[in-house]
Amino acid sequence: MLKMDKISKVFRTELVETHALSDFTLTVNEGEFVTITGPSGCGKTTFLNIAGLLETYTSGTYLLDGVDVTELGDFQRAKLRNEKIGFIFQSFNLMPDLNLFDNVDVPLRYRGMKAAERKQRVEQALESVGLLGRKKYLPAQLSGGQQQRVAIARALVGQPRFLLADEPTGNLDSNTAHGVMDLLHEINAQGTTIIMVTHDQELAEKSQRNIHILDGRIHEESSAGVLAESSTAAVA
Predict the structure, then answer these.
(1) Helix, coil or strand: residue 5
(2) Which pairing describes strands 17-28 and 193-197: parallel, antiparallel, or unpaired?
(3) Label partner for 64 (CA 20 to 30 A): which of 34, 73, 173, 206?
(4) 8-12, 82-86, 226-230: lowest mean pLDDT where?
């Protein structure tokens, strides 16, 4: 479970004070698929960075899988992040000089895992996204959709409890985007909790719950059932 209670994030300069998040309260239960939407600058990325332990917050409480992260030091945060969280980014963030196997292997090396176990996990992750046969390819030899699948495999190889995705379909055409979403739904069905930031309302409506953020606060929340009923009513 991910639980934030009255989280605030304030950026300060000598002249300006900007509230990226204000009294932000959200609980994401184990196994949920939640999307986060809202206009640019509303706080989506700040929320995701805090959720992923990439950024600290000004006030409030954040429990990740039962652990209060408020007082954790940098090393403890990094360890928890590596063990519990997988990240998927819009720009894939693959290392161009490493082949697919080595790209997916990177997070496991940080754990100090033995080579035999790393090999088994990497090949399993690549097989799950349909790219095991191309494990020796470089990222530049793949399409955008295939590169995103590699990024998903890299996020999954550590067997995270939470998968955080920041606009994972933003650089993809619509058909490829839907393919990536189908893969994320398969991963979610296997028990991984997914939180995805997206500007695509059609994709957001395919999640179990959509959280719409405005000015650093939750402005509106919709469940899949509500969205489906609204769509049916519109057709009628």
Answers:
(1) strand
(2) unpaired
(3) 206
(4) 226-230
